[in-house]
Give the backbone structure.
Amino acid sequence: MIPGLEYEPPHGYNTASPSVQSVEISPQHQSDYHHGQQLHRRRPHANGHSQYNSYNDNDGGDGKYAKKLSAKTVKKLDFFPKLERDYEVRTERGGQATLVGYVIMLVLILAEFWTWRGLNGESLEHIVVDTSLGKRMRVNLNITFPNLHCDDLHLDVIDVAGDSQLDLSDTLFKHRLNLDGTLRSKAKIATEANIKADEDKKKQEALSKDIPADYCGPCYGADEKEGDCCNTCDDVMERYKKKRWNENAVQPLAEQCIREGKGKNEPKRMSNGEGCNLSGHFTVNRVAGNFHIAMGEGVDRDGRHIHQFLPEDRMNFNASHVVHELIFMDEEYGDMVIAGVPGETSMNSVSKVVTEDTGTTGLFQYFIKVVPTKYKGKSGGTLHEKVEHHDTQNAVLPGVFFVYEIYPFAVEVTKNKVPFMHLLIRIMATVGGVFTIMGWIDSALYSREKKSSR
């Protein structure tokens, strides 16, 4: 007899009672009826009757076994074995080790953050050969002479390659100032200009009485187009300046200048009672040279650059000045402007004043070393400057000289960028390492306590 099992007779077999609770089956009968028949487990139903569930030999047994095997395999891969709460042992020393671990983690995480922040944006400088020597560079200049008339200010540029630019005026602007440094009113300047224009007109009319009405004076090769006329000496001189030719060579020969009494290239007398602000820009070759504002007008004669002035006016040339801005920059990248080097002397806001104690005039020389600087990852470069200056009172040629030297090497600056993911990885490694080491220390101390307590 098998407890809990009932025998279901074949179809047509009569039983004595449908409510048989158990049937005694001999081993022989059991073997006869076991195969090919269905066995049912009886369990109580809610209504008191019996409920039967059939067990079939082919009821998904293989699928359940495969799932159990897969679950066991996954459990073996668990790196984080768990203990029942009843088997966990918590000690005071373990809590102390945990607190120490948290403090260490916090300190190390903050250190990693500050290190990442310091490295992110750090500038790395490398020396490279400057391959842009054939290009020109632009110079921005803004300088004020409180005691010099604008008519006496002439900016000349010369370099070691033999190139010279005399009395630059195309991209430089002169602003007349009062002696107190304020701008002269436009109305007053216009009135003076009109008076001078009337005087010049009357003078020209007196000189042109003997000139035919259809007169067209020659420009001596400086014609802008065929048929251009240069009827006055100023017209000839202006055309020569535009072509950057030596106007002083043609002045004694031009008929217009001879007729107007300007054939002799004599220095003019200085004007007094005003100051002048000179601002604008100009371009120079990327070679060593200088630009200066000195007494008199500069001319080139026999391959030399000289200045013409009246000796008696030398003491009237007050070279006091204020440099508001001086910037060297790449002509190609006009929007990239950075002047000066941190910690070094910049030319901006440099002020030099000539006093009665030091003399009424003087020579000021600024020696500028220009270092081409390229920023990797940007579309342009800049030119940094380092400045030294010397001044000599009562010099032979009073003025302000800016002597510059271009380094043949360039500094390439690369901004170091560390991704945020690197910081996250280092923080995770720090946290994991601290947990592991503190776990080793706690385990070693706990094992030692257990051994000592035995």
